Amino acid sequence: MKHRDIEYTLVQGVGRHIWKWSVVLDGSPSATGQTMTKAEAVSEAERAIDRALALKKIRLVSPKAEGSGKGTS
C-alpha cells in the first residue's frame, strides 16, 4: 500500500486480532508495529510516514533560509 508515495505493508498475524505493519523509507524498513485491527494498523503506518516526512522537511530548511526574511539596511 502507499501513503504520500511511501510504501507500507500490512500483514494479518496468526491470531485473528493481530495486524502487523511496516514502513519502508530509503530502501530499508524504518518503522514497524502491530495492532489489534486493520484500521489501526493503517492509521499507525500512515502516522509513521507523516512523522518521517515531517522530520525530513525540518532537516531541509537551512539556518540561512530562516534569517533571510530580515532586512539589514
Roughly what is the average pLDDT, rounded to an integer?
81
How many distinct domains? 1
CATH level-1 class = Alpha Beta
Cα separation of the termini = 52 Å
Rg over alpha carbons: 18 Å
Shape: elongated
How much of the sequence lies in strands comes to 25-35%
Query: How would a crystallographer describe the biggest sheet?
Result: 4 strands, antiparallel
Total E-strand runs = 4
CATH fold-level name: Double Stranded RNA Binding Domain
Number of helices: 2
Estimated structural class: alpha+beta
Q: Give the low-confidence spans.
A: none
Supply the CATH architecture: 2-Layer Sandwich
SSE pattern, N- to C-terminal:
EEEEHH
Classify the helix fraction into a percent range.
25-40%
Q: What strand line-up does the widest sheet have?
A: 1-2-3-4
